[in-house]
Amino acid sequence: MRSLRIVLAWGAASLLTAVLAALVEAQRAMSALAGLGVNIGLPERLQASLHNLVAFAPLFALIAALALLLALPVGGALARRAPAWRGALHALAGFTAILAALGLMGLVLPVTPVSAARELAGLLALAACGGAGGLLFAVLSPPRPPE
Predict the structure, then answer these.
(1) CA distances (Å), 29 to each of 19, 44, 115, 130, in order?
(2) Pairwise CA distance, residues 126 & 128, whole Å
(3) Which stretches of the chain drop beneath a pLDDT of 70?
(4) Angle at Cα 18 formed by Cα 9 and Cα 66, nearest 5°?
(5) Residue 124, pLDDT score
(6) Exposed/middle/buried for 122, CB within 10 Å: 0-12, 13-18, 19+?
(7) What is the pLDDT of residue 147?
(8) b or e along 63-84 (b: 16 or more beta carbons within 10 Å of the residue's beta carbon)?
(9) Are 66 and 94 in contact (CB under 8 A)?
(10) pLDDT of residue 128
């Protein structure tokens, strides 16, 4: 039962990370257009968000799932040494996972695959989505029993 809860928590963390990242990506793109003088209202922002939830989130969910699969056990290992910091350590693991994944993609691919990651603020916002996913994992997954 514990293993199932961990897998479900990892899935939920990956999904939350992807949904938040899709919304960040959409709104940063809309803000960039508004900065160029394009009239962007609420309907356009909602349409862009919905489009990104359908087109961007599924692929980013795979990226987040892989990154979190590698990072969350590290957060868990650290949390066993500092149980009071479990939520913060998992959030930090999620933040770092997305930051590392985007950095690695930037090194391997000829273009930045996520436009929001081209600027520091966007990169940090996307990493914060991973932090939210890591925190959700900490909330949903059972702490490891003492050995």
Answers:
(1) 16, 11, 8, 19
(2) 5
(3) 145-147
(4) 65
(5) 96
(6) buried
(7) 58
(8) bbbebbeebbeebbebbeeeee
(9) no
(10) 98
Q: Give residue 144's pLDDT.
A: 77
Question: The tokens of 75 are what?
Answer: 């957060």
Listed by start position, the domains of the chain span 2-140
Please name the residues in contact with 67: beta carbons below 8 A apart, sequence gap of 6 or more: 97, 98, 100, 101, 130
Q: Cα dist. 48→10, 12, 23, 119, 133 in Å?
A: 27, 23, 8, 20, 22
Nearest to 69 by CA among 140, 114, 131, 134: 134
* Structure tokens that stand for 136 in this block: 């959700």
Q: How confident is the model at residue 109, as a pLDDT?
A: 86
Structure tokens at 7: 């897998």
Could you tell me the CA-to-CA distances from 131 to 53, 68, 72, 94 in Å, in that order? 19, 10, 11, 4
Tokens describing residue 103: 């950095």
Q: Is residue 53 a contact partner of residue 22, using CB atoms and an 8 Å limit?
A: yes
